[in-house]
Design brief:
Globin-like
Length: 80
Amino acid sequence: MTAYNRMGGPSLYVERHGRPMLRCRHLRAAIGAEVVRGWLLCFHRAWDEQTTDAALGEDVLPRIDKLAHHTQNRGCGERI
């Protein structure tokens, strides 16, 4: 089940293309704690600039944070 499905969206992507396997698709890139922190910093700044719905942020941002940490594949003991 993708994050979109957990939020109530349809499973169209999975039905057409299979599971996203985001972590597997990023294994060729070295993604450590510093990269995750940088990506999350950029994501949160963009979110703050573009989104005014606080309730949506409370629901979506923890999922994005979890997803970012899930893609980390180097120094996995260094979670922030």
